[in-house]
């Protein structure tokens, strides 16, 4: 695998490893973020007969304290310190910034890698993701050089497809270069995983995560600064909701606590299947039970009753910002470009294939569509009023 300033050269003949015996020892990156915290919690929920140890590689010195706080905030069980260990790492640095001895110890223990860490900067050019792309290279080399050849599971994003000209989104590596540095960085990483599998026949997989919604069990909250709660605040401010979400009108969101469980089941599926040379495993993690956005509008009447097309909604939002120039910040204005490009009508909704995901995950097979109960939970967490019909009950 080669790229500008980043190359991986691997022999083509490698004896595929046998599926790892349980219990597994897992290396997890990005554990302190929203999805990462839920992945860690799902790993901890498995008994020691399945998961012996969990090594969390993070960039910060105080990752353990951040992790404890993240679990507590989301109402998740506390850290199991006898099984979970934190290591400060630098992605893109030689040996991840670890000593030779520490790296060798990990290589003798790790039986599964879940690489979830990635900066979410949509305005950053591709070059800004260089060290993170190099980190993927280094994890692939780690897996190859390890005597256990641990499967490498890369958490990618369906934005790769949203940012390209694709309408049908298959569960296979894309060769269409998407727009934007963030999507391009994920695209490059996926291609590296594909090249690794083709070169070695060793197990690796790409898990493309779509829209992650807030949790529906336990504590925690859908981060209020993300695009959907921001859209609702903007709609409340201008007194009108969007009538359609354009290409994203088929709601295929999955709650974060369910996403983490699906990832666990995909991991078990991948680790139990020897790789075949040239066969990259790709899983689109999106809800196969979709619902149209307008079916959710009755649950949003506490925010606004009127619905308008995208062009009119954008005009109202721009007008609101113009009429209140001294306001501390009109909700949604900073995301106007996103809303314009994503929700413009005239394009059919994306069609996302999820066959591999449902084959690997029983949780995915039993997914329900986004529904009123979930939506009411999220609205309450964000401080929005209930639907008007319910407000009088």
Automatic annotation (TrEMBL):
The lineage of its organism: Eukaryota, Fungi, Dikarya, Ascomycota, Pezizomycotina. PANTHER family: ENZYME, PUTATIVE (JCVI)-RELATED, PHENYLACETATE-COENZYME A LIGASE. Keywords: Phosphopantetheine, Phosphoprotein. This is Male sterility protein-domain-containing protein. Gene3D superfamilies: NAD(P)-binding Rossmann-like Domain. Coiled coil: none annotated. It holds the Pfam family NAD_binding_4. The keyword Metal-binding does not apply. Residues 1-22 are annotated as: Disordered. InterPro entries: Adenylate-forming_Reductase, FAR_NAD-bd, NAD(P)-bd_dom_sf. Residues 28-263 form the Thioester reductase (TE) domain.
């Amino acid at each position: 695998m080669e790229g500008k300033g980043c190359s991986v050269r691997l022999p083509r003949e490698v004896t595929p490893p046998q599926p790892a015996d349980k219990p597994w020892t897992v290396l997890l990156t990005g554990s302190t973020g929203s999805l990462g915290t839920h992945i860690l919690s799902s790993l901890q929920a498995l008994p020691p007969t399945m998961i012996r140890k969990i090594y969390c590689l993070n960039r910060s010195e105080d990752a353990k304290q951040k992790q404890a706080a993240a679990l507590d905030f989301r109402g998740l069980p506390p850290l199991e310190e006898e099984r979970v260990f934190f290591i400060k790492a630098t992605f893109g640095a030689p040996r991840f910034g670890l000593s030779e001895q520490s790296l060798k110890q990990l290589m003798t223990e790790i039986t599964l890698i879940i690489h979830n860490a990635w900066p979410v900067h949509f305005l950053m050019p591709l070059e800004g993701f260089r060290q993170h792309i190099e980190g993927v290279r280094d994890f692939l080399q780690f897996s190859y050089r390890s005597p256990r050849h641990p499967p490498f599971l890369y958490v990618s994003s369906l934005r790769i497809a949203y940012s390209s000209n694709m309408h049908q989104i298959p569960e296979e590596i894309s060769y269409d270069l998407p727009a934007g540095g963030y999507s391009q960085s994920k695209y490059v990483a996926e291609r590296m995983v594909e090249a690794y599998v083709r070169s070695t026949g060793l197990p690796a997989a790409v898990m493309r995560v779509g829209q992650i919604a807030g949790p529906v069990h336990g504590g925690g909250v859908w981060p209020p600064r993300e695009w959907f709660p921001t859209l609702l605040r903007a709609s409340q401010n201008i007194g009108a909701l969007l009538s359609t979400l354009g290409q994203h009108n088929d709601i295929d969101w999955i709650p974060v606590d369910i996403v983490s469980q699906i990832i666990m089941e995909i991991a078990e599926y991948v680790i139990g299947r020897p790789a075949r040379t040239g066969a990259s495993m790709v899983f689109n993690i999106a809800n196969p039970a979709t619902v149209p956005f307008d079916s959710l509008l009755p649950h949003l009447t506490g925010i606004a009753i009127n619905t308008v097309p995208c062009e009119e909604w954008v005009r109202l939002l721009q007008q609101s910002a113009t009429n209140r120039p001294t306001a501390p910040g009109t909700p949604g204005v900073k995301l106007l470009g996103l809303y314009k490009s994503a929700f413009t009508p005239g394009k059919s909704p994306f069609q996302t294939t999820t066959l591999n995901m449902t084959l690997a995950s029983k949780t995915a097979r039993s997914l329900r569509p986004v529904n009123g109960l979930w939506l009411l939970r999220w609205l309450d967490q964000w401080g929005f009023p209930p639907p008007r019909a319910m407000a009088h009950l």
